[in-house]
């Protein structure tokens, strides 16, 4: 298994509170991604990173920000959580571009916003 | 509007029989397609892929077929086993997409009955 951990694995928070999810990798892969999974929508890309301090928006980036200060860590922040952000969040990593077969997913974080 | 669609949310198959999972896409820029398998409380794992220059790719019990003119792909599992019971996601990417960003379908839950 690719060395990807996500923390926390489960979180319940209230509307309006800030939340930060952490993704940590031990593979030294260049690319890191945050996806959310919702019923009927599959996984949708929130943000991705192509290097330290290099990030870009995905399909559903509104309400989310990210930071990558080290190769191994990619943080996803919900500045003010809303109920629509209740979801399962997956981090993924990939060693290089043009290698779509080599995208590895973490175990996920289940976030509930009440 | 979803660019990748899996119109069957669930599929039930008898052990030993063939499972056929379908996927349709609308974006003509997609030229690389993947199938992922997901067990509960785990992240998706890569199963098999196909480039748009091919119409078939086989790996053991798993075969993916691509019909470019119909913008349709399918995953065949023969013979189906109870351990194949999982959610299967179809995903698409463009080879010109250097960042390996994936667009996913909504998933199909496969249940293989003993």
Describe the structure.
The complex is a heterodimer of chains A (114) and B (114). Chain A has 114 residues and is mainly β. Helices cover 0% and strands 57% of the residues of chain A. Chain A is built from no helices and eleven strands. In chain A, the strands form two sheets. In chain A, strands 2, 4, 5, 6, 9, 10 and 11 form a seven-stranded mixed β-sheet that branches. The model of chain A has no long low-confidence stretch (mean pLDDT 94). In chain B, β7 (62-67) and β8 (72-77) form a beta hairpin. Helix content of chain B is 0%, strand content 53%. Chain B has no helices and eleven strands. Chain B is mainly β and 114 residues long. Chain B has strands spanning 4-5, 10-14, 19-25, 32-38, 45-51, 56-59, 62-67, 72-77, 86-93, 103-104, 108-113. In chain B, strands 2, 4, 5, 9, 10 and 11 form a six-stranded mixed β-sheet that branches. Chain B has a five-stranded antiparallel β-sheet with strand order 1-3-8-7-6, with no helix packed on it.
In whole angstroms, how far apart are the ends of chain B? 37 Å
Class from helix and strand fractions of chain B:
mainly beta
Rounded radius of gyration of chain A (Å): 13 Å
Mean pLDDT of chain A: 94
Overall residue-averaged pLDDT value of chain B: 95
From the spread of the alpha carbons, the general shape of chain A counts as: globular
The rounded distance between the terminal residues' Cα atoms of chain A is 33 Å
Q: Which range does the strand content of chain B fall in?
A: over 45%
The main β sheet of chain B shows up as:
6 strands, mixed
Order of helices and strands of chain B: EEEEEEEEEEE
Gyration radius from CA atoms of chain B, angstroms: 13 Å
Strand content of chain A: over 45%
């Amino acid at each position: 298994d690719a060395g990807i951990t996500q923390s926390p694995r489960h979180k319940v928070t209230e509307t309006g509170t800030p939340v930060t999810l952490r993704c940590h990798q031990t593979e030294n892969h260049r690319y890191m991604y945050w996806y959310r999974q919702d019923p009927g929508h599959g996984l949708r890309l929130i943000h991705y990173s192509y290097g330290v301090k290099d990030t870009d928006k995905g399909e559903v980036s509104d309400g989310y920000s990210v930071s990558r200060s080290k190769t191994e860590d990619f943080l996803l922040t919900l500045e003010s959580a809303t109920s629509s952000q209740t979801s399962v969040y997956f981090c993924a990593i990939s060693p290089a571009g043009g290698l779509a077969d080599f995208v590895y997913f973490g175990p996920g974080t289940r976030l509930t916003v009440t | 509007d979803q660019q990748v669609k899996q119109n069957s949310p669930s599929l039930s198959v008898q052990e030993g029989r063939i499972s056929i999972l379908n996927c349709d896409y609308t974006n003509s820029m997609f030229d690389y397609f993947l199938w992922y398998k997901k067990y509960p409380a785990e992240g998706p794992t890569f199963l098999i892929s196909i480039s748009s220059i091919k119409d078939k790719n086989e790996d053991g019990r798993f075969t993916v077929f691509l019909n470019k003119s119909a913008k349709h792909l399918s995953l065949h599992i023969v013979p189906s086993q109870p351990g194949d019971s999982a959610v299967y996601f179809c995903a698409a990417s463009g080879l010109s997409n250097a960042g390996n960003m994936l667009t996913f379908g909504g998933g199909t839950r496969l249940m293989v009955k003993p």
